[in-house]
Structure formats: C-alpha cells, structure tokens
Design goal:
about 950 residues; alpha/beta; 14 strands; about 10% strand
Length: about 950
C-alpha cells in the first residue's frame, strides 16, 4: 500500500514550463513527449522543489525561465508522517526559499522539509531513487569482479555510489604503497628508513647499555601486543554475551514456543480435511436443492403435456398441411413475383408519365402516331421555307445594322465639320472683301457664328424605323424576333441621343468682338464647306438605302409569321405538342417510338398480374380451415405466408415438445433416484472423515484444525526467531539460564579489568625505558643520525597513516555491504528473483549469492554468474536488483521512483514485461516514468499518461 506520494504539482516558472499544473497524478504516472518536450526539465523540477535549486556555480542547469519572472513552483504530497502537506520553493538566497504548509494551516521551512524527507539529500535521492539509460549501459563496461561487486552494491545499498567510493580509496592507497613496488612514495620512504636504520644500528652497537634497554623495550612491546589481543578477545566475547542478554526475551519466547509444541500433540490431520468437509457439505446441500428442483420440474411437465387448439387443427389436417408446406415455397415465389410485377408496373407507369411530360405530352394526351411519308414531306417543305425566311431576315438585319453604323459615322463627321463652319453672312462678307481687294491679305472683324440647328430629316427617319422594328420583334416572340427587337431598340436610342446632342448646341448670337481673319483662313473655310456638302450627299444616299432594306425586312417578317401559323396548324392536326420545332420533329429516329413500346409493355404486365391474382384468391379459399388458428391479416399475402410457416413450426415443435416432455418426465424420475443415491454416498464420506480424526461432530472437527493452525503459526514464529538469533544459537545452548549468563559476563569483565591494569604497568615500564634510551641518544653524530632516522620514520608514518585511512575506509565500505546483506539482502534477493523472472518471461527462475558472487539459474538448471550474462539480460538483472532494493527500503524512505527512458533499448517483448513490472512496483511505491516511446499509449490507461 502506497503511503507518501505526489498528488499534484504546479510550476510557476521552470525552464520551458510557465504557469503549468498537473493534477490527479496516479501511482504509476507516465510523462510522454518527444525530444525537447520538457521531460528532463520536469524531472529536474521535482528534484529542485524537494532539495533546492542548483547554485549558479554548479554544473547542473538551473532552468531559469526565459518568458517569466517567476521561478519555482510547488508540490502537493499526501501520506507523509504529518499528513497532507504542500511544499513551495521560489527564488531566494542560496537554494531558494522553501515553505512547507500543513493541512492545519501551520507553516514551516527547511527544517520541516528535512524531517519529511527523512534527512535524505539530493545526491542520495538521485543515486537511489532515480536512474536512466546510462545506468543500464554502464553494466557492459564492467569486468567480472567489478560486475559482481556492482550488483552486490546495488542489491544491498540500492546504488553503486558506495562501490565507486571504495574503488577510489583502493586506488589512492595503491598510489602510496604496493607490496612489491619500488617507485611508490611509501616504498621509497621505507627503503630510506631501512638504510638510515642500519646506520643508527652501527652507532648504537658501540653502547652496550643502550642495547640492553633496547632489547627490554622490544620485549615490552611484544608483551603489550599479546595483552591487547587478549583484551580484544575478551571484549568481543563480552559484547556477544551482552547482545545475548539484551535479546534474552526472544530466546525466552523461543523456549516457550518449543515447550508448547511438545505439549500439544495432535494426531495427524488430513492436509485438506477442512476442504473435504466443506466440499461434502456443499455437495450434499447442492444435491438437496437439485432434488427439490427436479420434483418441481415433474409437476411442470405434467401440466405441459395437454394438446393446444392449434395442435388439434394440425392433427386433423395433417396430410393437407404437409402438401401445403411442400408447395409453399413455390407459391411464395409466385406471390413475390406478383409483388415484383406490381412494383414494376408502378415504376414503369411513373417513368412513362415522366417521359410523356419530358416529351411535352399531357398526362391524358394520346401518343402521336408514327409519321407518314406525306406528313414528313409537308414538314420538310415548311422547314425549308422557315430556313429561307430566317436567312433572309438575318442578312437584312446585318445590312440594316451596317447602314445604321455608317449613318452614325457620317453624322459624327458632319457634326465636327459644322462646328468649324463660319456663319453664312460672315463668310459672304469675307468673300466680298477679298474680291474687292484683289485677294490681298487684309484684316477683317471676326464675328462668332450665329447658327440655329434644326432636326435633320435622316435622324427623324431613323427614329421611326427603330420604333417599327422593335414592335415587329416583340410580335414574333422567337429567335428572329429577339434579334429584331435588339436592333430596333439600338437604332431608337441612337436617334434620341443625336437629337438631344443637337439641341444642346449653342443657338444664339454672341457679342461681336474685334478680331482679324487672314486669307489662309478663308481658303481653309472654303475647303471645309466643300467637305460638308460631300458628306451630306453620302448620308442622304445611306438613308435612302436604309429605308428600302427596312421595307424588305417587314415583308420577310410577315412571310415568316405566315409559315409559323401553318406549322402550328400542322402540329395540331397530327397531335404533336405545339412547342416542338421542325428540327425536333425531323430527327432520324422517331422520338415517340420508345414511349409507345413502354405503353405496350405496361398493358402486357397488367394482363399477367390479373391472372396471377385470380390464382391467389383460389389458393386462399383452399386453406380457409387455418383461418381460426392463424391470426394475421389475410389480405396481406406475405403476412399470411409467414403466419403459415410460423404455425407449422409451432405445431411441429409442440408435437415434438410433448414427446420430449414425456421423455423428460421419465428421465426426471431416474435423475431423482440417482441424486438420492449420491446424497447418501457423500453423507457416508462425511461420517468417515469425522471418524478419521476421532471427532463426533463437525464443530469438534473444525476445532482440531483451528488448533493445528495455531501450532503452525507458532512453528513459523520459532523458525523466524531461530533465524534472528543466528550466530548466537551456540551460545544459547551453552547458557540456558540467564543467571549463568550474567555471572559469565561479570567474570569476563573482571578479567578485562586485570588485563587493563597489566597493560598500564607494561606501558609505564616501556615509557621509562624509552626515556633512558633517549638520554643515551643525546649528542654527537649518533644524535644526528638518530634525528634523521626519526624524521624519516615520522614522514613515513604520516604516509602510512594516509594509506591506512584509505585502506580502512575501503574495508569499512566492504564490511558495510556485508552487514547490509545480512540485514536486507535475503529479502532483496527474493524480490530480485521474482522481478527477474517476470522480466525474462520465466527464462531465469532463481537469483542467489554463491561464494560472494551474484549467480542466476536458468529454467533448464544452468547457472550463470553476472559477468557471463548477455548485455540485455545483465540490464534486466540490474533493473530487478534496483527495484527490489527500493521496495525493501520503502519502510525507511518513502519517495517516488523516477525513471528517465531507462528501457528505450529494450525490444518489444522486454518492454511489455518491463511495463508489467512497473505496474507491480507501483503498488508499493509511486513511479514516474518519463519516455518518448509511443507504445506506452497502447499499454497504459489514458488517465495514467500526461502528454507533454
């Protein structure tokens, strides 16, 4: 059962995430997104809120947002030792300002957060509860020895970090000293010390007293070593006996359980006795219930054997019914054919009427007969006349349009020339003056023209002609009439425009202004008058021709109207729709031929339908005896057919059912007798089962099994206690009485006190000897040698102390791993075996420790050390060890497990097994899985996936 978990998170600003909230986080929460989607940023956010933002000098990314001034966010936790809490961290000094808010509303800071996290720091959390692909890939880089130690470290401590530290210490120690080395620092110093020692020894040999004291000092040192070893031995023994005394309650409990097991001696009970008893009782009760049900079934069968009214009619007309059913399919096909013919007639009639409408015929109008040769010749003649009239009208309309255009063009030219003409009086005066002066250039007074424009005759004629052409076109109401209407309206509008234009020309005598005309202007005016007279003659000719063409146009239109009336009369005589044109009727194929054939087809099908309906009426009369028992609409043939089939099916089923009921009645009697016999057999087995354990009643039988279960529980507790005492089992056999144990402890402590006094005396004696030696060593060359020797020893000792520190630290780590294995390693190995079996789909069924080496057993019995596994299998073993540690450490540290695409290199089957394992792990600890693998969307529920 999960206790501590992250329920939701709110990001104020962190990397790419700004004002983002994730609610309803599940026990197994997947964060899916492509590269650069923000998965690693989200993982870093969780680390930062719990343990603080990375410092600015740190190599870790701070993920300060670019688009927001806010930095930080908050996490909502449930199931902590303080209940529901909210952890908020924002920008501040050092690692940020954190605020812990409890459910009661109280608030705290870093000290409360440290308590909630059980004193865990960021590095340890990342090492134990967070791993990725790099952790898996590193397995491949280790040799045999390192790989085994690596797995041991992960399995016991949960991470390889301690192992790295131990290796680092060993490496540093190797740099200082190697047993067979020469170039290392301590090896060189030891050589120097040995050389200096020999020099000192030669100097010391000259003094006999010095040698005696030196010998005494060495003896004292040996005695001290021996005494200290004895003290260590007694201290270790006292420690073990003290531990034995502190755990004496467990030993007493173990002795009590052993005594109770010996006291309660039960006869051997069947292993599945309770199951057998419950089974017999269940079977007996079930048999009683079945017997009751079978007896009720007998009463029901008796009531169901009576014949129904339908069955009586069937039996009376059995032969007729059999013959009817034999021919029913044939008759049903005939009914279907009748329905089909009706539908075909109806559809054909609808189509027939639509085609008549499309051809322009009324619903009741007769179809025109096929066209005779005489009528076709008459139609050809009318068509030829129409074509001739249309061609002539077309040519006349084109000529009239051309003449109108020519008239308009000439009129524009005349207008331009008239604007340049002088007034006749001015022109006559200038002409007279020029004649009088023998055509010499002189100056004249220029008077503006005074003209009075009148409507020309041609424009009035155009106006009348345009009006007549428009009226004629409206009267004809066909293609030619449309052309005439447009041409007439065009001529009409042009004439009106010309008249309005002329009226707007100035028609007044303006004030005479003094100006001069030259001889050249007079010559130019004479030429303009000549051009004006020529254009006036041309426009008169055009108007004359235009009047002639318009008269011809009117005559041709009258002729066309006469031909159209004759064609309409012809269509009425032969029954053709009036809107048909000659081209429509002159097609090679007769457009009414198909509809005539369709009318004949409708008549033939109606005749066939009438015959078939008569046959149906006769058939209904022949089966009238079924009318009282078949309740359908007899006017609906298909309902009647289905009713007959259903009736035959029901009565044959009823007849067969009665036979079955009689047979079932007999079988039910036999079944009841068999059930009674079975009931007696189970009751006999139940009595025999009670006798085997010497029990008179079921209650006494069950009490014996309750007592047996209690003894089994006590035996399990005894086994657990024996495992816990472990190494103290030998001492326990020796000290069966606590008083003797305490007496032994006191005796050992007394010996330790005596040893301590002896060691102190020897030390005092050794110190006095060393003082005497130092007095002899004062002065002369000997003193210098001794000083140099002491300096070398001191320098060497410093290096040795450093080397010893590294070696002891590495040894302590190794011992820590060993002690951890004793504490949690068995449970870790059991869970590893279970997880590893799931991940390998049962190919590997056991993981155990053999000679301090992680060993796995394949399902065929073959054993492999960790170094012998393939890369993929080694990665699976790593995952199994890591997960099993997290599970077994859950009672100490409860924080979510973060996995960043750790299984991207797994194949499809391994991923599937990995996802199943994640689901299993998430039952005990919350898991956050960050991935870009699309396959997760097919494996996990939608509410478990957060799309980034």
């Amino acid at each position: 059962m999960i206790t501590l978990k992250i329920k939701s998170m709110e990001i104020y600003g962190y990397g790419k995430w700004v004002d983002h909230k994730i609610d309803d986080i599940t026990n197994l929460q997947l964060f899916y997104g492509e590269n650069e989607a923000g998965k690693t940023t989200l993982m870093s956010f969780i680390h930062s809120i719990l343990f603080g933002f990375p410092s600015k000098i740190s190599s870790e990314l701070r993920y300060e947002p670019k688009s927001s001034s806010q930095y930080g966010g908050r996490l909502f936790l449930t199931g902590t030792q303080y209940g529901d809490v909210q952890i908020e961290r924002v920008r501040g000094k050092a690692n940020g300002t954190v605020t812990v808010t409890f459910a009661s509303g109280e608030m705290g800071g870093e000290e409360w957060l440290e308590k909630i996290l059980s004193g865990l720091d960021k590095a340890t959390y990342q090492a134990l509860f967070s791993f990725n692909l790099a952790g898996l890939q590193k397995v491949q880089q280790l040799n045999r020895e390192k790989l085994n130690r690596y797995f041991l470290s992960v399995g016991t401590i949960g991470n390889e970090q301690l192992l790295k530290v131990a290796d680092k210490f060993q490496m540093e120690a190797s740099k200082l000293f190697k047993p067979n080395g020469r170039v290392t620092v301590i090896n060189k110093k030891m050589a120097d010390v040995e050389s200096k020692r020999k020099q000192v020894k030669l100097a010391k040999e000259k003094n006999s007293q010095y040698m005696n004291w030196l010998l005494e000092k060495e003896n004292l040192e040996k005695e001290l070593i021996s005494l200290r070893e004895q003290r260590t031995h007694y201290e270790d023994k006292v420690f073990k006996l003290t531990q034995l005394e502190s755990n004496w309650v467990l030993f007493s409990e173990m002795q009590d359980i052993q005594h109770q097991i010996k006291k309660e001696q039960l006869e051997k009970l069947p292993k599945d006795g309770l199951y057998q008893l419950n089974h017999y009782n269940q079977e007996i009760n079930q048999l009683k219930l079945t017997i009751t049900q079978q007896q009720e079934k007998l009463h029901y069968l008796r009531d169901k054997t009576e014949e129904t009214r339908q069955l009586k009619v069937f039996i009376e007309h059995r032969d007729e019914m059999i013959q009817l059913m034999e021919n029913l399919d044939h008759f049903q096909a005939k009914l279907q054919e009748t329905t089909f013919i009706k539908e075909t007639i109806l559809a054909t009639q609808h189509q027939f009427l639509r085609e008549k409408q499309q051809l322009g015929l009324e619903e009741q109008q007769a179809i025109p007969a096929a066209m005779t040769e005489e009528s076709r010749l008459k139609l050809n003649d009318l068509q030829a006349k129409q074509n001739q009239a249309e061609q002539k009208i077309k040519k006349l309309a084109e000529r009239i349009a051309f003449l109108n255009f020519q008239q308009e063009s000439l009129g524009d030219q005349l207008d331009k020339l008239e604007k340049r003409l002088w007034d006749n009086q001015i022109y006559q005066e200038v002409d007279d003056q020029l004649k009088k002066s023998n055509h010499e250039p002189r100056t004249y007074n220029k008077i503006d023209k005074q003209s009075e424009q009148k409507l020309s005759k041609g424009k009035l004629i155009n106006l009348v002609i345009g009006l007549m052409i428009s009226i004629l076109g409206l009267y004809l109401s066909n293609g030619t009439g449309l052309v005439l209407t447009i041409a007439g309206l065009g001529l009409l509008f042009y004439s009106i425009w010309s008249i309005i234009k002329k009226k707007n020309t100035p028609n007044k005598v303006e004030e005479i202004r003094e100006t001069a005309y030259s001889f050249e202007e007079y010559i130019q005016q004479t030429e303009i008058r000549k051009q004006w007279r020529e254009k006036l003659a041309e426009i008169d000719q055009v108007i004359l021709e235009l009047n002639e063409k318009q008269v011809q146009f009117e005559e041709t239109e009258n002729q066309q109207v006469h031909i159209e009336k004759e064609f309409q009369s012809w269509k009425q005589i032969y029954g053709y729709p009036l809107e048909y044109s000659t081209s429509d009727l002159m097609q090679e194929t007769d457009i009414f031929e198909a509809i005539r054939e369709k009318a004949n087809s409708i008549y033939e099908k109606q005749t066939q339908l009438s015959q078939m309906e008569n046959e149906i009426v006769e058939w209904k009369e022949s089966i009238s005896y079924l009318q009282p028992v078949i309740f359908v609409d007899w006017n609906s043939n298909m309902q009647l057919i289905e009713g007959i089939k259903q009736f035959f099916k029901e009565v044959t089923a009823d007849e067969e059912n009665i036979k079955n009921l009689i047979r079932q009645h007999k079988e039910a009697h036999q079944h009841i007798e068999q059930l009674i016999m079975q009931q007696k057999e189970f009751e006999q087995k139940r009595r025999h089962l009670l006798q085997t354990v010497k029990a008179e009643t079921e209650e006494e039988f069950r009490k014996k099994y309750v007592l047996e279960e209690e003894l089994t529980t006590k035996k399990a507790r005894l086994n657990l206690l024996e495992q816990q005492v472990g190494e103290y089992s030998t001492l326990l056999e020796k000290y069966r009485d606590k008083a003797a144990l305490i007496e032994s402890i006191q005796s050992l402590k007394a010996k330790l006190y005596q040893l301590k006094e002896s060691i102190e005396n020897k030390l005092n004696k050794k110190i006095k000897t060393e003082v005497a030696l130092k007095n002899l060593e004062v002065g002369g060359a000997y003193s210098e040698l001794l000083q140099e020797y002491a300096n070398l020893k001191s320098e060497t000792q410093i290096l040795v102390d450093e080397w010893t520190t590294y070696k002891i630290a590495a040894e302590l780590i190794e011992r820590t791993l060993t002690e951890a294995r004793k504490d949690r390693f068995p449970a870790t190995i059991r869970d590893t075996t279970y997880f590893f079996s799931i991940l390998t789909n049962g190919n590997y069924q056991k993981v155990f420790l053999k000679d301090q080496t992680i060993t796995v057993q394949r399902k065929d019995g073959t054993l492999f050390e960790a170094a012998e596994l393939s890369q993929a299998t080694a990665e699976q073993l790593y995952v199994a060890l890591r997960f099993s540690f997290v599970k077994n450490a859950n009672d100490l540290i409860q924080l979510p497990l973060l996995v960043d695409d750790g299984f991207v290199n797994f194949d499809h089957q391994r991923k599937k097994e990995m996802y199943q394992l994640l689901k299993s792990i998430s039952e005990d600890i919350q898991v956050f899985y960050f991935t870009f693998d699309e396959s997760v969307t097919d494996v996990f529920r939608k509410e478990q996936i957060e799309m980034l």
